[in-house]
Design brief:
The protein is an alpha+beta fold and 344 residues long. It has 9 helices and 16 strands. The two termini are 19 Å apart.
Length: 344
């Protein structure tokens, strides 16, 4: 029988809409509670995965392309997918399988037009959104395209995972109350709301990178902007997401290093005797310059020591990446991609 915990949230930027809101969270989804009854850090989820698969039989390759194009032309659960822009691999067949009951898309692409491309099939989907029932539907639909042609378990076992987005939700605190940065002093890009509050950060970018390895954002606001259903009773919550490009079979994902060790995250609380406006200026300076540089601007003395201690306590309170990563094997099994017997 499920066991639920309640969190009420904690925020220095609480709005009227947050008053009285509480979230009921299934215990099986929780990594730990930084502040019991207030904040919950959840177990990691796979927010997106891309799998490529080689097909040695040339006849099967062509039949698969034809079947996908026919299914898209007929409509129903298969729909033509939007074309990608320049620089992306182009495919002879590119369709979205709409998975019931919410028509969540699974991108299925076959027949890359570039001859040097080694794979014949590519899948991209969100396992966390599909859940086990959606994965079962995908398996049935894919294997039903060509009689005795494709086997989903074989694709998962032998295909190459070219991308996996690993996300952690922090429920009960908004991104504007957190200090988030990636190690190594790499570039970051932040987007702010009209009122000046941070909403989305792209972190850990090196020169020449087209995409950031890390994204952190106001998940509640993102759901509002996309007319999505609010999660966790509408409480503020922050998502931290890492984009890995492992290029290995699914079974090898268990061996990934813990990426969350490379993130610095703090929930700093104003120290006693500090003036609220001075503290806010300091926190803004931390977000803009980095915490070490912001502390370096303060004159030596009691105030600097209090602020430094508050930052240290803010890190210790909320961020425990080893506890998060303990659930990674469970995350892989709960995704529904691996064979059930291998997750027993």
């Amino acid at each position: 029988m499920p066991v639920f915990f309640t969190v009420a949230g904690v925020s220095s930027n609480k709005q009227k809409e947050d008053k009285g809101k509480k979230a009921k969270i299934d215990s099986k989804d929780v990594s730990y509670f930084p502040i019991r009854g207030k904040i919950a850090v959840l177990k990691p989820i796979i927010d997106k995965i891309s799998i490529t698969h080689q097909i040695s039989d040339p006849e099967l390759k062509e039949t698969l392309i034809e079947c996908l194009l026919q299914e898209a032309e007929q409509g129903g659960q298969f729909q033509s997918a939007p074309k990608y822009g320049s620089g992306q691999i182009q495919y002879k067949a590119s369709v979205n399988l709409l998975v019931p009951p919410y028509d969540l898309p699974v991108l299925i692409q076959a027949g890359p037009k570039k001859k040097a491309t080694s794979h014949a099939l590519r899948l991209e989907f969100n396992p966390s959104a599909l859940q086990s029932s959606g994965i079962a539907f995908l398996k049935s639909a894919l294997e039903g395209l060509v009689l005795d042609g494709l086997n989903f378990s074989e694709i998962a076992a032998n295909g190459k995972i070219t991308r996996v987005d690993i996300a952690v939700d922090i429920v009960g605190v908004g991104i504007s109350d957190l200090l988030v940065s990636a190690e190594g002093g790499k570039k970051s890009h932040w987007y702010y709301s009209a009122s000046g509050k941070p909403e989305t950060g792209y972190l850990g970018m090196k020169a020449g990178d087209k995409n950031a390895k890390w994204t952190t954002y106001n998940k509640r606001q993102q759901l509002k902007d996309t007319a999505g259903n609010q999660l966790y009773g509408g409480l503020p919550h922050t998502r931290i997401e890492y984009r890995a490009t492992p290029m290995v079979p699914f079974s090898k994902l268990l061996g990934l290093d813990n990426p969350f060790l490379k993130i610095s995250l703090a929930y700093p609380v104003i120290p006693k005797a500090a003036k609220s406006h001075e503290w806010q200026f300091f926190i803004d300076s931390c977000a803009r310059r980095g915490q070490h540089a912001a502390l370096g601007l303060l004159p030596d003395g009691p105030m600097k020591k209090r602020y430094e201690a508050a930052l240290a306590a803010g890190h210790k309170t909320i961020w425990r990446p080893n506890l998060i990563w303990k659930a990674w094997e469970e995350t892989l099994c709960r995704s529904g991609i691996a064979e059930a017997e291998k997750c027993s």
